[in-house]
Design brief:
This protein is α/β, with parallel strands linked by helices. The protein has helices spanning about 55-65, 80-90, 155-170, 180-185, 190-195, 205-210, 215-225, 265-280, 285-300, 310-320; strands at about 1-5, 10-15, 20-30, 30-35, 50-55, 70-75, 75, 95, 100, 110-115, 120-125, 145-150, 175, 200-205, 230-235, 240-245, 250-255, 325-330.
Length: about 325
Amino acid sequence: MYDVITVGSNTLDVFAYTDKSESICIRTIEGQDCYISYPSGSKLLINELDFDTGGGGTNTAVSLARMGLSVGYIGKLGSDNSAGLVLEELKKENIDFLGAKGPSGSKTGYSIILDSIEKNRTILSFKGANNSLMFDEIDVFRLKTRWFYLCSMVGESFNTLNRLADFAKSNDIDILFNPSNYLAEKGKKFLSNILNQAKILILNKQEAQYLAGKGRAVDLLKSLKDLGPGTVVITDGPNPVHCLDQEGCYYILFPQDIKVAEATGAGDSFGSSFLAAHIKGRNTKESLSIALANSQSVLQHKGAKKKLLGLKEAEAFVAENPPKVERQPING
């Protein structure tokens, strides 16, 4: 019996750092859009080059395992050398691979992460085999778990997410759903089956607006909760986190002032740590604080997994550096 089975993408990540990148921001009617810029027609030197495994499915699996939970991972690998690197890391972290491998010639997902002078990043993502996971490729007899952590998947793999949501309902398995921009922008009707069965929904402000329209954070929370989830958490980069939990309590969590090294994996560490704390019996305020501690640890280091905290480490950090968490009336 697993505590959690994560379902999502796997990739080989390449982090390219150069001091030749520039930031260009364009004002629009709705706000401001910023872009990473490189000189056209130039050959630029890379100051630093790092390789790591990534993808929402494996990032969350590793985070949950380091939090002391029993974890399985469902995804689809290619038949290339990158697949071996993903499997090697899962084995090292004591995570069981419950997914599938593609036929000869299929490619594992691949991402190129471009850094910016603001320490934010743009990701060039090749999905590869990630998009072709079929439900029939999964051994359902191994899906003995308390929770599914569902990340974003598209193509045939999204149909598999829907089938897993139905499987969860039939087998008393709870769901945490963490959609991405490219899923959320398809709208609430497209995601209705998973949203209706999710016990916890964690997403960022832009994703929340795709599903619930514009408005105050508390109104977005209420609208999203009406779609089915018991607890909804909305993150917003360096801005406050808003949460409406299953008891109807409204919380605002204020991120602390930190020096950001690189942002990849921060969202995955937040969501997985929130779930781990919840499974371990922590209340909403404690779970939010632990999630923030782990995500901020990731933000202060390069790479999605290098500085993930265990539960005791995160709780010790919270005890020494307690974040500001406000509980407010739902109509406040």
